[in-house]
């Protein structure tokens, strides 16, 4: 029986860890690993056109499944292309294993063709980054890398020279049971006791939730009911906390709306649940703050804390809720619910003012129609920029839909690559890429990956021939827009030429039919919607300082436009408010 090579052992361990795909672009230094995949029926090689796409796709797969995903790049320039997508995965806490293949081991450090030092380059965007310079390091090094990615939530990078990958794996090597899931973390009793006292002593408590509330919706709602607390959320908390939430007061941050800002500033106690909310300018500095997070390094790095609680949100609330004294005074909650509804009613007028007849088409209208027509369990991938605004305001979560974007790293061009990773998980689940023309064209070559694999991703292209978020930033800074306009082709024609379904929409009355036809199409489809580049307006009563922050509350909203079905939820919640 032939000895197993290091490459074969590498692939077998990935399979044992649950990896089903390795996204990448082939190259000579990767050949031993790619050939090992070819001969292993339990894992597929996914050929993309750019390694950045491979990393984004793996990151999206990991975010959606919670399991390890993997990508690879050949030596030098090949694996360098991975770095942006790996930064995004790492900051999104997505468990990803990246294989950065390397030049021949005997040539490292001698200025060889395509030489870089991946074991140094990827350190900032990984929990673990090491070079396999000897077959005897296998399989322990790879197993350690996998456990870092899964256990700490983020990226591990293994650099493997092609000649080492071709050598025989060590005999009698130690292959231990792999960690493939993370445990829950319960806070200590002392911290629970302190938090109970703080809550019982406070008259007005607000909860502000992030992505760490995933899987804890029922616990958050039960807790809010017990202490009569308004519940706001960050963008990454939207999909987990906004639906079926009668305590909802909207979102704070750069894209904020509703009464979330007021609720976090007018309370006695603010409890941050599972959020590493990056904008400390939106957090109060004159109220007590407690933070609950499973990542202890996140505690207190955005604001001064009166109490730091290290624990999983769901487990923490399961311990906490029965122990706090039920509150009966709803005055603060009802006040915030009213402010929230009034704020949404105030901006909904901009959305309802003949936008269904406006040419060029209002992007708000596109997002609203998309929200209504998309499947109830659709996965939305969202480009950075104005598509973030439309997704934040118009895509309605329901506990089954997912919304993935570069919400922490803030990279352009993420939506199409992430849609690739999302669709490979389940070809029967609707995946919609909300792409801007700037982001789409940056990695447009991988539209061909959709065609090659017949992935039924639906791209809704918000085509305003502009980098409109950058234009707004320039406007805020008092600068004329410069270098932000794009001369675009007919993207639908390009899609058809590539062998996919493509349709161009220039009039609002064409939109619903075009989306329905695209959704019915069995393969990849692109809907090129020509949208108004001047859709954004800034109310004159907003100061330049406030505009820089985009929105401090709904009454200080910067990006003029509607908020879709959220206003219906706010109206519904008002029914719970006692009338005087």
Would you kindly provide a written description of the structure presented here, covering whatever features stand out?
This protein is 38% helix and 16% strand. The protein has 24 helices and 19 strands. It has a seven-stranded mixed sheet with strand order 10-9-8-7-11-12-13. It is of the alpha/beta class. It starts with 5 loop residues before the first helix and ends in a 6-residue tail after the last helix. The longest helix is centred in the middle third of the chain and has 22 residues, at 331-352.
List the defining traits of the structure above.
580 residues; alpha/beta; 6-stranded parallel β-sheet; 19 strands; globular
Question: How many distinct helices?
Answer: 24
- How is the biggest beta sheet arranged? 7 strands, mixed
Strand content: 15-25%
Q: Count the strands?
A: 19
**What structural class should be given to the helix and strand makeup?**
alpha/beta
- Roughly how many Å apart are the termini? 84 Å
Mean pLDDT: 90
Strand order of the largest sheet: 10-9-8-7-11-12-13
- Give the helix level as a range of percent: 25-40%
Approximate shape = globular
Low-confidence stretches: 537-561
Backbone CA Rg: 25 Å
Would you spell out the secondary-structure blueprint of this structure?
Elements: H1 6-16, E1 21-24, H2 31-38, E2 44-47, H3 51-65, E3 69-73, H4 77-80, H5 83-91, E4 96-102, H6 118-121, E5 128-131, H7 140-152, E6 155-161, H8 162-166, H9 189-201, E7 205-209, H10 217-227, E8 231-233, H11 238-241, E9 248-251, E10 257-258, H12 260-265, E11 269-273, E12 288-293, E13 307-310, H13 313-320, H14 331-352, H15 363-373, E14 379-382, H16 386-394, E15 402-405, H17 415-425, E16 431-436, H18 437-442, H19 447-453, E17 458-463, H20 468-476, H21 491-497, E18 501-505, H22 508-520, E19 525-530, H23 544-548, H24 566-574
Parallel strand pairs: 1-2, 1-3, 3-4, 4-6, 5-6, 7-8, 7-11, 8-9, 11-12, 12-13, 14-15, 14-16, 16-17, 17-19, 18-19
Antiparallel strand pairs: 9-10
Helix pairs in contact: 1-2, 3-5, 3-17, 10-13, 14-24, 15-22
């Amino acid at each position: 029986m032939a000895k197993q090579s290091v490459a074969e052992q590498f692939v077998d361990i990935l399979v044992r860890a649950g990896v089903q795909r390795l996204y990448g672009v082939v190259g000579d230094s990767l050949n031993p690993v790619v050939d090992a995949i070819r001969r292993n029926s339990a894992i597929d090689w996914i050929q993309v056109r750019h390694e950045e796409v491979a990393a984004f796709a793996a990151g999206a797969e990991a975010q959606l499944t919670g399991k390890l995903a993997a990508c690879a790049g050949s030596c030098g320039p090949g694996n360098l292309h991975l770095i942006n997508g790996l930064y995004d995965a790492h900051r999104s806490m997505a468990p990803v294993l990246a294989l950065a293949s390397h030049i021949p081991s005997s040539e490292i450090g001698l200025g060889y063709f395509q030489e870089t030092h991946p074991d140094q380059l990827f350190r900032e965007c990984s929990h673990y980054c090491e070079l396999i310079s000897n077959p005897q390091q296998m399989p322990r090094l790879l197993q350690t890398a996998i456990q870092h990615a899964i256990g700490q939530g983020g990226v591990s990078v293994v650099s493997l020279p092609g000649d080492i990958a071709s050598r025989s794996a060590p005999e009698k090597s130690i292959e231990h049971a792999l960690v493939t899931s993370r445990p829950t973390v319960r806070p200590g009793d002392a911290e629970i006791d302190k938090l109970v006292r703080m809550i019982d002593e406070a008259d007005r408590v607000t909860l502000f939730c992030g992505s760490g509330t995933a899987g804890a919706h029922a616990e958050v709602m039960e807790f809010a009911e017990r202490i009569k607390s308004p519940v706001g959320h960050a963008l990454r908390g939207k999909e987990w906390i906004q639906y079926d939430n009668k305590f909802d007061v909207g979102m704070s941050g750069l894209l904020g709306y509703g009464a979330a800002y007021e609720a976090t500033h007018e309370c006695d106690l603010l409890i941050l649940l599972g959020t590493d909310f990056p904008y400390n300018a939106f957090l109060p500095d004159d109220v007590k703050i407690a933070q609950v997070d499973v990542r202890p390094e996140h505690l207190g790095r955005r604001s001064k804390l009166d109490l730091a609680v290290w624990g999983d949100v769901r487990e923490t609330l399961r311990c906490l809720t029965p122990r706090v004294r039920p509150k009966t005074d709803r005055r603060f909650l009802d006040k915030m619910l009213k402010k929230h509804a009034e704020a949404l009613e105030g901006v909904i007028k901009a959305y309802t003012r003949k936008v269904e007849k406006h040419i060029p088409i209002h992007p708000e209208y596109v997002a609203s129609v998309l929200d209504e027509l998309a499947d109830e369990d659709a996965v939305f991938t969202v480009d950075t920029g104005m598509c973030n605004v439309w997704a934040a305001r118009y895509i309605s979560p329901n506990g089954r839909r997912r919304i993935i974007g570069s919400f922490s790293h803030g990279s352009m061009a993420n939506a199409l690559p992430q849609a690739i990773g999302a669709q490979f998980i389940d070809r029967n689940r609707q995946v919609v890429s909300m792409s801007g023309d700037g982001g789409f064209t940056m990695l447009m070559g991988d539209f061909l990956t959709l065609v090659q694999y017949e992935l039924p991703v639906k791209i809704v292209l918000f085509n305003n021939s502009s980098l409109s978020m950058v234009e707004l930033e320039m406007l805020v800074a008092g600068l004329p827009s410069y270098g932000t306009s794009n001369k675009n082709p007919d993207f639908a024609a390009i899609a058809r030429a590539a062998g996919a379904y493509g349709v161009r929409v220039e009039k609002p009355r064409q939109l619903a039919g075009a989306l329905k036809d695209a959704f019915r199409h069995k393969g990849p489809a692109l809907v090129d919607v020509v949208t108004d580049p001047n859709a954004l307006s800034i109310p004159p009563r907003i100061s330049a300082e406030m505009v820089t922050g985009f929105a401090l509350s709904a009454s200080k909203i910067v990006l003029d436009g509607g908020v879709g079905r959220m206003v219906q939820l706010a109206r519904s919640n008002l029914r719970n408010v006692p009338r005087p």
